[in-house]
Amino acid sequence: MGLFEEGMLSLTLLPWSVASPCDSWRDLANAFANERALLSLNAAHQRSLAQTLAVSALGMKTSEASNQYLKSLTSHMIAYMVELSNKNDLKTIAQQPDIILWVSCLLERLRGVASASESRTQKAIYEIGFSVLNPVLIFLQAYRDESTVVYLLLKFVVNWVEGQIIYLEAQETAAVVDFCMRLLQLYSSHNIGKISINLSNSLRSEADTEKYKDLRALLQLLSNLCSKDLVDFASEPIEAYGTNISQVVYMGLHIVTPLITLDLLKYPKLCHSYFSLLSHMLEVYPEMISQLNIEAFSHILGTLDFGLHHQDVEVVDFCLRALKALASHHYKERGVGKVGLGSHASSYKDPDGKFHEGILSRFLRSLLQLLLFEDYSSDLVSSAADALLPLILCEQSLYQNLANELVERQVNQSFRSRLTNALQSLISSNNLTSALDRINYQRFRKNLHNFLIEVRGFLRTL
């Protein structure tokens, strides 16, 4: 414990009112900030206590008092982490059980404080987090084989970025994005999260669980960065500082995607986080898909196909939104003479003569199969329509071929006639045009709803 005690600060009363009703609360805050007794609490209680004490700052008379209180509350944690990270023999010291315990404890506390961020206390919590960013990178390297500490480091960053990102000015955002880029690079360079295929089944299951937690944290971090493009109170764009959020998200996608297997997507929380991020990234940065290498691109296609047939309605909805984003991006880009998704949208034969269908053709076929012959929630019809319209506009000849195939398979003349008329009405009735605007999406939703009522019943009974 000696190292920690060296980093402890002398007792400093926190800036609470001296009125007697606050005495017990002030004593608790001072004990938290300056004494060792409360460090015996378990991790969840450490985090909860820190969050509660941080939230209490909102009740102070001025924002200056609130921010000063938070700095006093956390100064000992920051001092210790900075001091430890600067030790020349950190690699040896860090592995001592008591040091691992202290670092874990303080990360839980910082995570609790980060989770309490509000506009009134945002400035102080930003400064608190920013002051330990370099130690976080150093500890990630030192503890790369300690999965528990790695996870706590990632979760602290996730909570801190989540609470801060929408409030930050462009220069601050650039610093945070740069840090996240370095964090992702470090995580990747040390092969953290990758699992040897030679592990036994029992060990692999345990390792999968650890990897699942890390990957979910990284997905949450990328989602938090993406949120800056939705809600941003900054007075100038981040690009003014030579930083682009899409670039760190793009790199993060390359790092995280290959680690996510279909087995890992069986974890509901990871599955939800992954498809939520994927749909959001493709909606905000659809041009990124054409920059992905073949491996990452193919992997995303496989997961999208998996998610499209998932039992969770929300996961399917995320995938449909992703498909809408891809197809509408390609259609609009091609409409102004650009390449859109480029080669990813084109079908081709590989050197062995094997045919590979383009992404849009593949998902047009898959989505029609889902809508006509498979089970799904009726709540998904609107999202499916929004994805299907740009897919049809991009692949009109394929749609016509698929429509003809469906009609040709009908031996009952009455059914054949009904299906022919319904397929034609789907793409022409209700004054439907080739525009991808709100009105046209609404028209196509109505068309698809009527189409499914008309044909789905008899198609599934044949």
UniProtKB/TrEMBL annotation:
List cellular component terms (GO): cytoplasm; nucleus
SUPFAM superfamilies, alphabetically? ARM repeat (SSF48371)
Biological process according to GO: protein transport
Span of the signal peptide: 1-19
Name its cellular compartments. Answer: Cytoplasm; Nucleus
Write the record's keywords in alphabetical order, separated by commas.
Cytoplasm, Nucleus, Protein transport, Signal, Transport
| Primary subcellular site in the record, as a coarse category | cytoplasm
InterPro entries given for it? ARM-like (IPR011989), ARM-type_fold (IPR016024), XPO4/7-like (IPR044189)
Q: Which family does it belong to?
A: Belongs to the exportin family.
This protein is called what?
A: Exportin-4
